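Structural biology now treats backbone shape like a language. To illustrate, our science desk offers a sequence and the tokens encoding its fold:
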Amino acid sequence: MTELWQGLVKAVELIVSRDPEVMEITVRSLAISATSCTITALVCLPLGSLIHFSRFAGKRALVNLIQTFYSVPTVAIGLFIFVLLSRAGPLGELGLLFTPIAMVLGQVLLVMPIMLGLTISALSSIDKAVFETAISLGASGTQASILTLREARFAVLTAVIMAFGRAISEVGLSLMVGGNIKGFTRTLTTAISLETSKGDIELSIALGIILISLALIINVVLSRLQQR
């Protein structure tokens, strides 16, 4: 209980004093996760719409497969990216391993099933009459799909929130492909892991409180936007 209180006090001190290292780690964590979710949204919203509005054999099986990957272990994605970007891998010559780009790529693959599956579910919850009415009024298939997606925007925003939460809280992938390099790839989760292994429990708790606070603030803001 004492360690928890000391961690809380230290967290407040770090925030109030705007500790340069903590601020740097926090900004990097937000930047990597936000970039990952933005890229994922640009891919998954059109792809999810395409899957939902298309009719093809195996569609149900494809959706079930996407949903299966909701809980894919982060270390499994990390291993895949590591092999892909290592010197012996097909993209090793690019030198992207242990860089923020590798972390972004890993997080994109990690949250893509979540955003894609929830986008399809969001579109499925909208009455088919919306799409059919738009078509009957002369809209193209693309225009009708965009209209339906707008109707499902609140559920889609929820998908984005969940994807961001998954991205900013993962640690295994970041350690494997980012290397936890100080001043370059260290994030809040990897810093917590490092400080815990070093026995600096107070700082670990402080960083954990900062991480939880950030996630709470972002979720509250997005929820307010969703309600409006």
About this structure: The CA atoms of residues 4 and 205 lie 7 Å apart. The two ends are 40 Å apart (CA to CA). The chain has a mean pLDDT of 86.
